[in-house]
Design brief:
With 214 residues, the protein is an alpha+beta fold. Helices cover 35% and strands 19% of the residues. It has one domain: L-fuculose-1-phosphate Aldolase, CATH 3.40.225.10. A hairpin with a 3-residue loop joins strand 7 (174-177) and strand 8. The N and C termini lie far apart (55 Å).
């Protein structure tokens, strides 16, 4: 499907949903400064042919402007004539879409995902067991145990993108960049939001559990 075939109604619907989520997450302080980004696929897509809306680079996500989002292609490049620049991390979003076939990806920076990813960074994953919010990830086993991948954080975004395939696990809809932030995704914008909220609860609870043990 060519981008020109995607209707204006489809584009506007996606942007409206993303604006709503952006407002909710910004109110929680999950986009300090101009950090973080949100994206959502628009129209039908194939593994190597798809388009998505993503937050513009260097924008305060607590504000709403006509320049909050732009549309990019499967390699994270703008697919419309625009003066806006996509998030630097659009390449990571593109790789996640290609690997998972998901519909939306949210990336936020919080104190707890930074602290817990640094604590477990050398281990390469965050071990979690028995946390009630694991169910929100679609895992319903009694006393379930999961391992949330932690990737090293590099300034060079393509270096991170190369590591993404190894961090994709079918039952864990997210991974964390060490001392940086989480990427969470879902089959809809609202599922991605639910997964993100579950991960953030898990991180805070794990941090507080470790603090009690010291």
């Amino acid at each position: 499907m060519a981008f020109a075939q995607i209707t204006l109604e489809e584009k506007q619907a996606r942007l409206a949903e993303l604006k709503d989520v952006k407002e909710q997450l910004a109110a929680r302080g999950w986009f300090p400064g101009t950090s973080g980004d949100l994206s959502a696929c628009v129209g039908k897509y194939a593994p190597d042919e798809f388009y998505f809306a993503i937050t513009s680079s260097a924008k305060d996500k607590a504000m709403h402007t006509p320049e909050d989002f732009l549309f990019v292609d499967a390699v994270g490049e703008a697919c419309e004539t625009t003066s806006l620049k996509p998030s630097r991390e659009s390449l990571i979003h593109a790789k996640i879409y290609r690997m998972t076939g998901c519909s939306a990806i949210f990336h936020v920076h919080t104190v707890f995902n930074n602290l817990i990813s640094e604590f477990y960074g050398d281990q390469g994953f965050i071990p979690v067991q028995g946390n009630e919010l694991i169910k929100e990830l679609g895992i319903w086993e009694e006393n379930a145990a999961i391992e949330i991948p932690v990737l090293p954080n590099y300034v060079d975004i393509p270096s991170i993108a190369k590591l993404v395939p190894g961090a994709i696990h079918s039952d864990i809809p997210g991974f964390v960049l060490r001392n940086h932030g989480i990427y969470a995704w879902g089959n809809s914008i609202w599922e991605a939001k639910r997964h993100l909220e579950a991960f953030e609860f898990i991180f805070e609870l794990e941090y507080r559990r470790l603090a009690l043990l010291r």
